[in-house]
Amino acid sequence: MLASVFSRRLALPRCSVPVLGRRGFATPSSQDIRDEDKKPRKSTTPLRRSASASLPIRANPTPTRSSIQTVFTLATAERYLLSRMRTHPELPRAWQKFHDSWWIPTWGRKGKEGEVFVFANGSFVCWGLEEEEAHRFALEVIGRVPGIEVAPLKAPETEELEFVVDPIETTRLQGDLIILGKNPSLNEVAPPAKYPPMAFPADTLFARYAFSQALSRSTALSALEVALDEYLSSMALLPHSLAQTGKPGMGRTALVKKLGELMKFRQGLNLNRENFSDVPDFYWTEPELERYFNSVSDALDVSIRTDSVNDKITYAAEAQSVLRQLLTETSTHSMELVIIALIAVEVVIALIRDGPELWEIFTGSPVHDKSSEPHGKPA
């Protein structure tokens, strides 16, 4: 388990599932730790830096501790319409709305069942399911719900962590490993009166929900980061074009579309109900669950990444301001040319129509009109 694995976006071979961009976390090897100061690393999140904190748990199994399993998160769209889950053609009774998610207590092949939380931000979190099973869930469940996906992603994004179940431990995130242990204390949130059969202990259901919501938020943010990077890449030639030709190098319609895309990014980051800056209202009265949520959010640098995305959007907004000025100047210049042309036409018509009279006024002599002379020679 001490393999060093960290990839922000990993292209997977296409089988029966789409190619995914992946963000994975695992414990570093001893060689990686020794070489930490010798070369720069792409992985700089607190989760990766503190991955060694999970070594005592990984290296010292106990009779009460389960095997290490996977928490796999996958985002396939910008947003899910969770109300559409009720239209699934084979909706089991156990599937139900659970606060801000749709909860599937058991899913998967017999003997390898896991648990799934589906969130409105376009992602779902699988507990105890391998990557292949998560892909299958996307195809067989999400794919069979008509209209649930709003703006599907070109390349789905993923996050991956690991967890163990140990009833004598305290529920927490240790390094890069989630430990599901003792039942967290709840203040005002009332557990369901009767739990359906589920793949994992009911005592940690709310803890799993809190961890899942933080993971889903990070994955949705990854999708936004990728889309924004693609947008900025499409605008990268604008400064060069302006410097070389004085023109933006794209038409008015294309510029207006770019303005709309930028407004969409800003809305998705800060104005939607599922934004990346505020802690959900659900945790206001539950400090223990909020601690679980914040531990994963901090480990995945959600706040820092949100600020970074906002800075990129601010830069893009400045570029769009230049584009708007160019559009305004172009429109003004075109209108001026049209007005000048209309004035010139009007002047020409006036000269043709009133030219003789104007000549007589300015010169004092009548204009010779051949039409007034008699035809033929006088007798």
From TrEMBL:
Residues 43-53 have a biased composition (Polar residues). Residues 26-64 are annotated as: Disordered. It holds the Pfam family DUF155. GO terms for biological process: positive regulation of mitochondrial translation. GO terms for cellular component: mitochondrion. Residues 116-310 form the DUF155 domain. It comes from the Eukaryota. Belongs to the RMD1/sif2 family. This is DUF155 domain-containing protein. It comes from Mycena rosella (Pink bonnet).
